[in-house]
Amino acid sequence: MKAPYLTSERLLFKPISIDHLSDNYLNWLNDYEVIKFLESDADYNIDSLKKYILEAQQKDIYFWGIHLKENGLHIGNIKIDPINLKHGLGEYGILMGNRLVWGKGYAKEASIEIINYCFHELKLRKITLGVVEDNIAAVSLYKKIGFLIEGCYINHGFYDGRYCNILRMALFKNSFEYDRL
Asked: Residue 75's closest CA among 127, 13, 134?
């Protein structure tokens, strides 16, 4: 497994493994409010989730479960995949599955920790992502972290019952570090 164990002020980041297989994780993937802006469909069962986790482990990617330090509760996942070391690029993705922790700053804390790791340890120069334009909370988070909109795919995907625009956003290492000074 490539992903190392990491920590931030309130969070633990554990490489995704079969230890993450749980009814709680399964419930996130079948919760419309959690997945309405994701590529995932709400038709997971425990066997398909197990298969997904095992396939992710075999890919040897940078993929972590996000856990609360205070009690070890698994509240979401974060990954950088794929990574192109030749060009210094990584694609970011996050899922905050536990709705009880939404709005508490955990997504921002997790994102900053993982992005910092990617820029300093993996020596990436640019992190990219795609986000549904209507996902106001996510777009706001990414802008706060320093991501800029590089482009927009018009009516590109079907989410939340309609065709939506997809924003392509990017964060460069030099602007991320500058914002932290």
From this structure: 13
How far, in Å, CA of 146 to CA of 51, rounded?
A: 35
* pLDDT (average), residues 172-181: 71
| DSSP per-residue codes, 7-42 | E-SSEEEEE--GGG--HHHHHHHT-HHHHTTSS--S
Cβ proximity of 115 and 123 under 8 Å? no
Mean pLDDT, range 32-38, rounded to an integer:
93
- Catalytic annotation, pick one of 25, 44, 92, 142: 142
The DSSP element (H or E) to which 54 belongs, if any, is helix 46-59
**CA-angle at 95, arms to 116 and 37, nearest 5°:** 125
pLDDT at 130 (0 to 100): 98
Task: Tell me the domains of the chain and their CATH numbers.
Answer: 6-180 (3.40.630.30)
Would residue 142 show up in a list of annotated catalytic residues for this protein? yes
| Cα 12–Cα 174–Cα 181 angle in degrees, nearest 5 | 70
Total number of residues shown for the chain: 181
